[in-house]
Design a protein that fits this description.
alpha+beta, single chain, 7-stranded antiparallel β-sheet, D-amino Acid Aminotransferase, Chain A, domain 1, OB fold (Dihydrolipoamide Acetyltransferase, E2P)
């Protein structure tokens, strides 16, 4: 039976605390992009995780999907940083928000339907076999995966400072929404940032507003309050007050001269750091701090 695309929701993994090895699982890189379902037939549609139709934002991806037999594909749209060659969530969000010409790539890892036949009840590895055949002669390719060795893949992801890995049960059906058949193991990555402002509570430093350069423009990437030692805060607040240049939206803005290193869980949909923690001060040139 053909699936109703108006009611589709991507299958999502639940969090798991640490990597593991298990012959009953397949392991994939967790891509730092925007989750997308591609409905391929006479009219190609690209749907966000929440069902938003953003086909018009990605004409290049639509072109690459033409010629693929009718199906519904699941994957992640990513953009690569020119500086690091790694997936950049802020960069792909800039593409979404501004309709710019930033190159993007569709990392496909599952298939929900082939022709008019639903594959939701098929086991994962059977779906992957179908996926390989569907994409065999197209510009789009299925993402790589490893069998059994989750710890080894996680170690490599950590070395490359990628987002993490996803462990998937070999026999798992495709379940819309969150499911324990799929487990995400995230790596808390690090990001260099510029202090662009601060927030006070009473006379004490509450948080730092952070920024970084994205394609030559300074972009706000969130606030950090965790990890600031009391002795550092006393010295830092004096310096920040002396370099204050204005205020707005609860932030006292300062000259962007101090650089820091923060650890974070992931990027939010608004392009801000989630659960950041200050790890130290850098003394690097602000212009060198990029996303």
């Amino acid at each position: 039976m053909k699936l109703d695309t108006d009611y589709l929701k991507p299958m999502e993994p639940v969090s798991y605390p640490e990597p593991f090895d298990d012959k009953e699982y397949v392991y994939e890189v967790k891509w730092d992009g925007v989750r997308t379902l591609a409905c391929v037939d006479e009219k190609i549609r690209l749907l966000s995780k929440r069902g938003r139709d953003w086909t018009m934002m990605f004409p290049d991806l639509v072109k690459s999907l033409r010629g693929i037999p009718d199906c519904i594909l699941d994957g992640e749209i990513i953009a690569l940083s020119q500086e690091t060659g790694k997936p950049s969530f802020p960069l792909v969000m800039k593409r979404v928000m501004s309709k710019s010409n930033i190159p993007v790539y569709f990392m496909v890892f599952d298939v929900l339907q082939k022709g008019d036949v639903s594959l939701l009840e098929r086991p994962l590895m059977a779906r992957k076999e179908v996926l390989e055949r569907l994409l065999s002669s197209s510009e789009v390719s299925a993402v790589d995966y490893v069998m059994s060795s989750g710890e080894k893949l996680y170690k490599r992801v950590k070395e490359l400072s990628l987002e993490g890995i996803v462990a998937k049960k070999l026999d798992s059906p495709y379940v819309m929404g969150k499911s324990e058949y799929w487990l995400k193991i995230k790596y808390r990555r690090r990001q260099k940032a510029i202090i662009i402002g601060y927030e006070e509570k009473g006379q004490r430093l509450r948080s730092l507003a952070l920024g970084a350069y994205l394609e030559g423009k300074l972009k706000y990437i969130g606030r950090v309050g965790s990890g600031i030692r009391e002795d550092e805060a006393k010295i830092l607040i004096q310096h920040l007050r002396e370099n204050r240049i204005g205020s707005g939206k609860g932030i006292n803005y300062v000259k962007p001269v101090l650089t820091v290193l923060v650890e974070y869980a992931e990027w939010t949909q608004k392009g801000q750091l989630r659960s950041p923690s200050l790890k130290g001060f850098l003394g690097e040139s602000p212009e060198s701090i990029t996303l």
